[in-house]
User: Which sequence fits this backbone?
């Protein structure tokens, strides 16, 4: 009896016992496949890793140790990979699929005491951050905040309304260029340009959206991708207006009632502006998510035909999602232009759209906390991986693949609001 | 005799060279339960799609007159406007919003009867809070009626099949229709669930004072709930009348009921 329980509990820790109990792929089978994988890799890498031609002495170096390293390394990696996959298969059947961090988040948010304590701690950390670390770190954190806001905006389009949008960065560019040009030609300040940038984002979104939003899925993705590229090409080639590839420099940093800051102070100031913008964004999206319109957008993602049959105007709902998303891209664009004081079309390539989309997908579609986590990981990781120099993009890519294989729903998946109903009056809690 | 709330005049529907519906004439009167029956592929679902705006019929007129008012032609109207006018439907292959909760599914149904917009959502002003509270209350009541209130906060995709069908009815009722269109509501239900559904359909008509057009294969249910029955075969209307008349019609027996010993 005790033997049985011991084997059961040991299963999840000990890979061998785990394979024996998992039943989806036997231990021997995994071993065989891992050996095959390592042999295949040895064969593939043989010419570059083992053979070395010494052209001066006209001899060949046989570096057999490299072969051993590759064989063993591939074998171990392949085996661990199979073990993790088998584990994932097994845990899928259990209802408790959530990982530990998610459970902790739930526990924190269900206990209002802990929730506000946690929030206060977070807020305090966010406020002292620029004073505690240097200018370099603050700058990185500003980019991270910009990506969070972009992610939350795109989340409205992709995560909530389910429209695959690959040209999001075009609206970011619209925001940035509207401030840069207005500032250059008319000396318009940051705070005036902020709503104008958002408005231009919305106008462009409606202009693009009206003809394009009747397309679905892949078609919409391709058209938005094309739009993103068109905007970038126009910025590059319409030199008279946009100054072409050389960009616009000397854009004013954000002012504060006429006070001029030094470089260091103005970065700190930009950080606080971005923090405020982020809080505003979270506030609005949080309220929107559980409102009549938020539910309509979600319904549109879930089932387009059914949502129409329930009285939702498809065109209006899609335009709304598109316009709201672009509004935040415009806002973020204005802050970006003011922070860097220099913009050119190279800042608005497809790569940026792809990163923002990855932030949404990896973080968790439709989840505010997920998007924040996604942006923090995807933006900060490449920065702090600079020590690994040329390997950093490899690590970055590997992380994305791993997340998608093991948590396809994203790091933190969206939770639906819980409603309670008391006869006579209705009360809700989250 | 009361006015028909739905009057369909000779509608046809062509898909390329295929004529899925051929000059169908059908009407539903106020407070009536009408059934549309016929073998698989006869065009019943296509008929629903034509009158709810998902397809635009090739020829013919679809006229509705809510509360006996002036008739309005709705061919080619967008589905959401048809729903707003007061015709709500369910789907043969259940189309719930799977990763929203049961209650939220019903709340979506109230979309076309509520007004709060972006400004209201962000400021949560008094009108919005009131509307939201009303929506929640109405949705809970509908779930109670369907015996689903204990699942309110479950995800819709986690409900068993029969309950998903009832949830679809609750969602359709939340749109405040004068005519409810049910596409095979008993499909996939066991006999007890079908019995309960029969009672439910009769109860809905009384309680909400609405008309119902029902597509159904379960003959017991059709015969015991319907006032009139329309029979489709290969896209043509081959008979209509009271359940008794239809079940005695030789053409119907040949086409459809002949296979069914129960009737
Ligand atoms: N969108 C469509 N395109 C082409 N043919 C269709 C389409 N929708 C339905 N049909 C055809 O119309 C006929 C009737 O289908 P349907 O209305 O689903 O039958 P029922 O609901 O009575 O079982 C079928 O032959 C089907 O293939
Ligand atoms: Mg059908």
Assistant:
């Amino acid at each position: 009896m005790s033997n049985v329980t011991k084997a059961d509990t040991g299963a999840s820790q000990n890979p061998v016992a785990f394979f024996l109990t998992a039943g989806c792929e036997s231990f021997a089978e995994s071993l065989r496949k891992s050996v095959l994988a390592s042999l295949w890799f040895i064969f593939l890498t043989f010419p570059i890793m083992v053979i070395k031609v010494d052209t001066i002495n006209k001899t060949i170096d046989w570096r057999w140790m490299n072969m051993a390293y590759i064989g063993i390394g591939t074998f171990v990696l392949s085996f661990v990979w199979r073990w993790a996959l088998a584990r994932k298969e097994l845990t899928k059947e259990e209802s408790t699929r959530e990982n530990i961090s998610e459970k902790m988040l739930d526990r924190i948010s269900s206990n209002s005491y802990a929730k506000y304590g946690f929030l206060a701690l977070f807020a305090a950390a966010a406020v002292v951050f620029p004073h505690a670390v240097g200018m370099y770190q603050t700058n990185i954190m500003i980019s991270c905040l910009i990506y969070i806001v972009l992610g939350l905006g795109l989340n409205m389009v992709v995560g909530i309304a389910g429209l695959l949008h690959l040209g999001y960065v075009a609206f970011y560019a619209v925001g940035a260029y509207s401030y840069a040009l207005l500032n250059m030609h008319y000396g318009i300040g940051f705070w005036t340009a902020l709503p104008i940038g958002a408005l231009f984002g919305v106008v462009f979104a409606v202009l693009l959206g009206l003809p394009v939003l009747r397309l679905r899925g892949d078609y919409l993705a391709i058209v938005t991708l094309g739009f993103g590229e068109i905007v970038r090409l126009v910025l590059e080639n319409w030199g008279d207006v946009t100054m072409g590839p050389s960009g616009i420099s000397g854009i004013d940093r954000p002012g504060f009632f006429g006070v001029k800051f030094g470089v260091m102070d103005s970065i700190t100031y930009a950080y606080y502006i971005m923090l405020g913008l982020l809080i505003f964004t979270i506030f609005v999206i949080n309220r929107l998510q559980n409102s009549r319109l938020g539910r309509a957008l979600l319904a549109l993602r879930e089932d387009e035909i059914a949502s129409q049959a329930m009285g939702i105007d498809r065109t209006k709902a899609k335009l709304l999602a598109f316009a709201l998303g672009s509004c935040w891209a415009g806002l973020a664009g204005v802050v970006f232009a003011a922070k860097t004081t220099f913009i050119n079309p190279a800042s608005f390539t497809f790569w940026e759209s792809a990163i923002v989309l990855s932030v949404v997908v990896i973080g968790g579609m439709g989840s505010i906390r997920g998007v924040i986590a996604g942006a923090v990981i995807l933006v900060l990781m490449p920065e702090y991986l600079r020590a690994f120099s040329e390997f950093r993009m490899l690590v970055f890519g590997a992380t994305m693949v791993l997340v998608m294989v093991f948590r396809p729903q994203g790091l933190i998946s969206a939770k639906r609001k819980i409603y309670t109903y008391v006869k006579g009056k209705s009360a809700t809690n989250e | 005799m009361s006015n028909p709330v739905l009057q369909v005049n000779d509608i046809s529907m062509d898909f390329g060279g295929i004529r899925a519906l051929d000059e169908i004439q059908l009407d539903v009167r106020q407070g009536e339960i009408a059934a549309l029956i016929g073998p698989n592929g006869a065009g019943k679902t296509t008929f629903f799609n034509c009158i709810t705006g998902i397809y635009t019929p090739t020829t013919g007129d679809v006229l509705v007159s809510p509360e006996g008012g002036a008739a309005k032609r709705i061919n080619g109207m967008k589905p959401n406007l048809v729903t707003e006018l007061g015709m709500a439907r369910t789907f043969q292959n259940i189309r719930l919003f799977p990763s929203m909760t049961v209650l939220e599914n019903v709340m979506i149904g109230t979309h076309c009867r509520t007004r709060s917009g972006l400004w209201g959502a962000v400021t949560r002003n008094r009108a919005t809070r009131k509307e939201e509270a009303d929506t929640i209350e109405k949705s809970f009541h509908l779930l109670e009626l369907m015996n689903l209130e204990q699942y309110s906060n479950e995800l819709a995709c986690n409900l068993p099949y029969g309950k998903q069908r009832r949830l679809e009815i609750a969602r359709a009722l939340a749109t405040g229709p004068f005519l409810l269109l049910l596409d095979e509501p008993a499909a996939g239900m066991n006999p007890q669930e079908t019995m309960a559904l029969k009672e439910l359909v009769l109860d809905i008509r009384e309680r909400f004072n609405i008309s119902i057009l029902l597509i159904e294969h379960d003959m017991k249910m059709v015969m015991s709930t319907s006032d009139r029955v329309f029979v489709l075969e290969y896209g043509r209307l081959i008979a209509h009348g009271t359940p008794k008349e239809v079940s005695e019609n030789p053409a119907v027996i040949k086409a459809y009921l002949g296979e069914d010993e129960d009737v």
